[in-house]
Amino acid sequence: MYGGYRAVKPACRPRAWIVRKPVERLGNRAACLPQPGIVDGNADQTCLSYEHFEKTRHWYAKYDLSRIKDKDKRQREEWKISGEYRKALLGEPMKLIEYIVRNDRPFSEIVTADYIGGGRFGLNLVVGWNEGEFEMFGVEQREHEARYEYAQEWLDVMKTIWSPKQDFNFEGRFFNLKGIRGKPKPVGGARPLIMNAGASDTGRTFAVRNCDAFFLQASRVSTEETAGFVNKAKELARTHGREIGVYTVGVITCRRTRQEAEDYYRHVILDNADFAAIDSILAMKNITPATKGREEFERQRRFYANGMGGLPIIGDADDVAKTLAELSHAGVTGIGVSLINYLDELPFFCEEVLPRLARLGLRERQPQFA
In terms of residue numbers, what domain contains 52? Predict the structure, then answer.
């Protein structure tokens, strides 16, 4: 398969994405989206067709079934192998992404994921994280400014690999590379969408200079304040001659009635939060009663209990759709949403909230792909 692939067990928590309108930058990548197929007679499950992988769609030829003399039995065995292949393909993207992260394979596996998803792969750049997680692997995290200098060189190399340019050299402070060649190129001839959530001045500048999607924390005070955050980010991007999409994250608690949603939110987030774990996370950020005062510390505890700081969106389907509409009107391009229990809550969200967004003209109805 493209770029190489090794199967590993998936361990990634999903996050649903709501985008206000198609990202025009993708160009003809959208034309490369695979058409849905049917798995085990279930049209709700979809997978890529064999034709999507032109060089590998005759993979079954390596199985010697000539030992099965009966034609019907041989065909049933072929169908069985085919079914197993399709089921494996359904779970392949998440396994692949985990392999990329665990094994630091930034190019070939990214392109593989891009082809599997038909051009829907996006790259979220995280330039720094908790010091203890670096120490676990015997790695020293660079100083703040040096992290972004390193990230800039890394991204410059990646963007050039994704471009039509071939056999190029790169000489920098961190990378000195000769005769770089990358094939195949991303789907549709356009690089994957790049996102970042830099919060410092250096981080914000890096994001608006390099990325297509900039993440920021929506205001818990008013949509007007959120609109101010969005405008500030877009104005900063324009100083670098760029237009960017601005995104945020939210934790949705949606029930059939507002009271039911508020009761469930209180039960999960306030009454039964794992505050021992939250206090540990806050301590890593030097947020304690001694450093911040008791009132601010308690506010931060509740903030982190709610999905590590995402905007709380609580209510019935009308309330949730209204809040998402207000974010859209504030200039937010899209939102990454988390739910407390995906199996119970995502079907209800899709059935009740998404149609309301479509009726408000904020979301187009799209075909569902795996």
Answer: 1-18+31-121
